[in-house]
Structures are given as structure tokens and as C-alpha cells.
Design a protein that fits this description.
about 170 residues; 5 helices; alpha+beta; globular; single chain
Length: about 170
Amino acid sequence: MEFTNAVQKETHERLNEYLPELFEEPYFDEDKGHFYVSYGSTVIEISNDPYGPDEAVVTIMAYCVQGAEVDDELLTGLLGLNHELSFGAFSISGRDVFFSYSLFGRTLERSNLLNAVATVSTVSDDYDDRIVAQYGGQTALQRIRDTGGRKERVTRSRAEKQSKRG
């Protein structure tokens, strides 16, 4: 993996050290350069990106809901929640709702990382069922169960590509 600056590299090394100490079986996706951990019923994605010439930002993100019916009421509601929450924010990409929280890499400590993961997981878990009930879609856990998880999707995708080749 290539790093843009020294702090991003140091942050990656700290994540590599902290995550196995804090979570069972963290996963690192070489292609995306992101870590994944399970916390309760939530799968958390942790990215480490450069921030300016000499800083890094660690973003802890949960896929809260996938496939929601996005309308003005949902958007206004999520903006209202962002205003009320002490840490983190909801966002939407297409029909997927995310919750994330960011930390600076230079000052990343084990306890701050754990608190951030717990916050993201708790908030996502608190709101995912409510959003699905009102706006449809699936919670991340439902989606994983329906698709068989990442390993199953990768295996299925490879099998489909091979069958198309003949």
C-alpha cells in the first residue's frame, strides 16, 4: 500500500497494531486499503486517508441502511439528527444511509479508536431499524445475511465470471 505522507503510514501501522488487540478477526482489504471489524451486530469500515501534507484522517463508518427510499423527509430528518448528535454524522450515497465519525491520525490512540467504533456502531444500530421501518431498504446485517456476506459474494462473482467465459 502506498502512503501520501509519513503520518498516514504511521497511522496505518497503529491501526494494524490496535485493531487485532481490540477486535476479533479484523480484516484488511488490500484493494481498497480499508479495515473491517465487527462490533455487536454492525460491520464497521475504517479508512485511513491523507489530510493535507502532514496529517491523516481515520474515518469509522457503518453501512446503516441499504436501499432506502430517499425523500425530503428522510433527508431533513437525518440533517436534524446530525445537528443533535454530539459526534459523527449521517450521510447518503444513492439509496444507502451511512453513519461515520472521523479522528485525526497523528493523535490516534487505542482508547479513542475503540470509543469511535462503539459510537458509530451504537448510533447505527439505534437508527437502522427505524429508518428501514419508515423508508424501506435493509439494515447492513440483513443485507449480509441475504447476500451470504463478502466471502460468498466474491465466490459467487468469480463463478459467474468463469461461467461467462465458457
